[in-house]
Amino acid sequence: MQACSFSSFVQCLALLVLFVACEPAAAEVAPAGEPPPPEVSTIVVASRTVPRVRELPGRLVASRVAEVRARVSGIVLERVFEEGSDVRQGDVLFRLEPAVYRADRDERSAALERAVATLEQARRHEKRQLTLLERQTVSTAQHDVADAALKQAEADYASAKARLVRARIDLDHATVRAPIGGRIGRTLVTEGALVGDGSATHLATIQQIDPIYVDFVQPAGMLDASDREGAEVEILRADGSRHPDVGRLLFTDVNVDPGTAQVTMRATFPNPDGALLPGTYVRVRLARGRDTEAVVVPPQAIQRSSAGEAQAFVVDDAGKVALKPLRTGPLTEHGWIVEDGLAPGEQLVVEGFQKIHPGGSARAVPWVAPTTETKAAPPTTESKAAPTTAQR
């Protein structure tokens, strides 16, 4: 039994010596490895044909504006319209107290009838005097007096008729109507107010907003042959969305502002639903033809330096990263147009900037653009809730 124990001890000691002898060799087999280069999403720069546009700031303006004013004085009896509603030309808006103007009309009408009677009498008298003159029973002087009385009666008749017309106009102006069709704003007077006393009181304002205008300016040196009447114009709202309807350029002013060296331009847009409101500031996209060799990159690929200059990361065939300064053009719906700094065939980094630096290494993988519409995945068995103990 002792011999057996001694042989077991010898075997254990031999195994221990063998393990210690092999441990340094194992340590030498597993050297410390370098981490692999980070992956970045890239696209291959290529030229494409895109519309050439210029973005300019603009402001929406009503195509027609009319101030509703009281043309006669009186007390406001009634406001007929609803504030903020659409009115048509000729619609009744206000009614003023008409009693005074109705009485004046009746008085002028009676004066006209009196003038008519006087005129008829003067005509008959002149005719009689002419007959007697031909018979040489009256003198020429007497006929001249009758003829002068006839002409005076004719003038009195014309004057009375004109005064009656004026009285009818004043009575009609006691009913204030819409001078143009459009959308009327808030009322500036209330019932019971005295208006038109010495001045034409401003009662309300009507603005025609279909179609609607957009006024914008651009430097005179940037004008070219494409800035012609009828050129297509687009509107970008404050949230960046595009107005669905396309407008047309109406005119380009012939005068250059000497203070700013800019030229005023105006475009017209259809606005049947009234979604565009006057006074709103928008961005205007003016079509300038098509660029057949434009370099367009995704917006997220453009970086900005501390000075605000555009720049982008590129990866060469050897996997080396470089940071290149760029000169960018306008931002289109397809992305930024790069006018200088990139060449077709270069690999432009779109995602993964936080993992790389100039002079470092990276492994380029193709970038997959996100889709505009994401389809909902059908429910799977794993997504269903597990039954509770009570349900089991």
Automatic annotation (TrEMBL):
Q: Where does the record place the Multidrug resistance protein MdtA-like C-terminal permuted SH3 domain? A: 294-355
Key words, A-Z: Coiled coil, Signal
* Multidrug resistance protein MdtA-like alpha-helical hairpin domain span: 107-173
Q: Where is the signal peptide?
A: 1-27
Q: Residue ranges of the Multidrug resistance protein MdtA-like barrel-sandwich hybrid domain? A: 64-207
Q: Does the keyword ATP-binding apply?
A: no
Subcellular localization is given as: Cell envelope
Q: Name one Pfam family in it.
A: HH_MFP_RND
What positions belong to coiled-coil segments?
109-170
Q: Which residue ranges does the record assign to the Multidrug resistance protein MdtA-like beta-barrel domain?
A: 211-288
Location of the region described as Disordered in the Swiss-Prot/TrEMBL record = 368-392
Q: Where is the composition biased (Low complexity)?
A: 369-382
Note the InterPro entries from the entry: MdtA-like_b-barrel, MdtA-like_BSH, MdtA-like_C, MdtA-like_HH, RND_pump_MFP
Q: Which PANTHER family match?
A: ACRA/E-RELATED COMPONENT OF DRUG EFFLUX TRANSPORTER, MULTIDRUG EFFLUX PUMP SUBUNIT ACRA-RELATED
The record's similarity note reads: Belongs to the membrane fusion protein (MFP) (TC 8.A.1) family.
Q: What is this protein called?
A: Efflux RND transporter periplasmic adaptor subunit
Q: Tell me what organism the protein belongs to.
A: Nannocystis bainbridge
